[in-house]
Amino acid sequence: MNPERLKAWMAELGVLAAEDEAREREAAQRLRLAASELEAAQAHSDAAVLMARSSRNALEKITEQIQRAHPDSGKADTNTEQPPSQRQQEKTWHAPDSVAGVILAFLRDREEASYSEITEQVRRRRPDVVAENCARDLGRMVGRGLLVRPRTGTYRLVAPQDGPMNS
After folding, report:
1. For residue 103, which of 93, 94, 113, 111 has the smallest C-alpha distance?
2. Is the dihedral of CA 123, 99, 135, 149 positive or negative?
3. How many helices (H) and strands (E) does the chain have?
4. Which end of the chain is more exposed for a tag (fewer CB within 10 A), N or C?
5. What does R_g of the chain's alpha carbons equal in angstroms?
């Protein structure tokens, strides 16, 4: 084959390789940015859930105090058509805990737990969540330094002596 032609192909391939490397770097940067934005959105969502739950609880407590202090003042019971048990259920309903919240609450009561124990607890507390997706949340929690993995398939809360370990 003609050496000049080979050199031209080599130069053209060099340009294409450089362009592809630039695209690869740009895609990696976009992935890092998207992961950072996703993590920030998750943190914002978790904070919003906690604030909403706190506001609902405060409203319920204030309403109960006002009703105890002034039983005949103000609002009439608009739920007279419903049985008392249904009114009580409506009054005590709370938004479901986040999967991370369920996991943290479960691990607070024990030294450590296996993946299957954690998924079973999530399945009980959040039947609307596919418990197998706990792996994603557990991985995030380990990455954020909330949990450690002392052994494969076992998780526990970070203890002060653990420091910022992401095992």
Report:
1. 113
2. negative
3. 5, 3
4. N
5. 27
70-98 pLDDT, tens digit per residue, is 877 555 444 445 555 555 555 555 556 78
Tokens at residue 90, please? 């409506």
Q: Tell me, yes or no, if the pTM score tops 0.85.
A: no
Q: How far apart are CA 12 and CA 141, in angstroms?
A: 47
- Position of tokens 């904070």? 47
Encoding tokens for residue 157?
Answer: 């809360």
Q: Which letter, b or e, does each residue of 100-126 get, where b requires 16 or more Cβ atoms within 10 Å of its Cβ?
A: bbbbeebbeeeeebebeebbebbeebb
Residues 114, 135: contact at Cβ < 8 Å? Answer: no
Residue in the block written with tokens 């859930």: 49
Contact between residue 60 and residue 91 where contact means Cβ atoms under 8 Å apart: yes
